[in-house]
């Protein structure tokens, strides 16, 4: 990797409280998840449904690492198809409890397919609950959920994804495609935003 890969971009240096999960650790964990998913799910072709926008980096890295797994293992590889849906629950930096569903792809592809949902983070679990209700109506053969992060929070619905990268404390985090007002997606580490960062990148100041 380029050395920039390990650094915090200069424009965010004064906006973070801490680096919670550095990018190297994220990449290592995704490699393990890719192997688990390929072993358990990759016997038949499957459809991947990425939840935008926060899931895009996890999707890209996970699919690369699934391909690498097949390249270096003796197993036959299977093709996967890729779809997108956009869901919005968070406003500013809190869960609203109302999930907005914006279609990117139609959902008729789901029928009779093994589906892997790829999500950035599960907080209250409300977003996943709404999504799974929508998906189940389309009668897929199976549905599994992979979430890079799960927050330990007292307001959790109890929903647990099938594949989890990391459990994290109940803090508002940014980076690795998770945003604050659309900023911080261009940060490779999962970080805790600071009060100064919230002010600097608030809706009012730009
Ligand atoms: P839930 O419906 O489980 O409460 O929230 C899930 C969605 O809210 C996630 O997919 C993510 O888009 C957003 N979200 C939850 N926690 C955080 C966080 O700490 N930081 C950011 N940037 N987004 C979050
Ligand atoms: Mg999300
Ligand atoms: Mg967001």
TrEMBL record:
Primary location class: cytoplasm
Domain Phosphoribosyltransferase: 27-180
Keyword Acetylation listed: no
Entries under Gene3D superfamilies matching the protein: 3.40.50.2020
UniProt enzyme class: transferase
Pfam families: Pribosyltran (PF00156)
UniProt superkingdom: Eukaryota
Signal peptide: none
Keywords: Cytoplasm, Glycosyltransferase, Magnesium, Metal-binding, Nucleotide-binding, Purine salvage, Transferase
Catalytic activity: IMP + diphosphate = hypoxanthine + 5-phospho-alpha-D-ribose 1-diphosphate
Record-linked InterPro entries: HGPRT, Hxn_phspho_trans, PRTase-like, PRTase_dom
Involved pathway(s): Purine metabolism; IMP biosynthesis via salvage pathway; IMP from hypoxanthine: step 1/1
Enzyme Commission no: 2.4.2.8
Membership in a protein family: Belongs to the purine/pyrimidine phosphoribosyltransferase family.
Protein name: Hypoxanthine phosphoribosyltransferase
């Amino acid at each position: 990797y380029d050395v920039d890969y390990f650094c915090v971009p200069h424009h965010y240096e004064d906006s973070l409280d801490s680096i919670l999960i550095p990018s190297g650790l994220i990449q290592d964990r995704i490699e393990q998840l890719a192997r688990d998913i390929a072993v358990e799910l990759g016997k038949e072709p499957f459809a991947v449904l990425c939840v935008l926008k926060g899931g895009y980096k996890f999707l890209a890295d996970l699919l690369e690492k699934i391909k690498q797994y097949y390249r270096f293992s003796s197993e036959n590889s299977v093709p996967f198809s890729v779809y997108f849906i956009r869901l919005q629950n968070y406003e500013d930096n809190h869960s609203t409890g109302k999930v907005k569903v914006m279609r990117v792809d139609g959902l008729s592809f789901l029928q009779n397919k093994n589906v892997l949902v790829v999500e950035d983070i599960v907080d209250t679990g409300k977003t996943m609950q709404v999504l799974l209700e929508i998906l189940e109506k389309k009668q897929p053969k199976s549905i599994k959920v992979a979430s890079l992060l799960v927050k330990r929070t007292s307001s959790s619905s109890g929903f647990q994804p099938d594949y989890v990268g990391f459990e994290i404390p109940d803090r508002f985090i940014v980076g690795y495609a998770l945003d604050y007002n659309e900023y911080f997606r261009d940060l490779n580490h999962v970080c805790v935003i600071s009060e100064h960062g919230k002010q600097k990148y608030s809706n009012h100041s730009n």
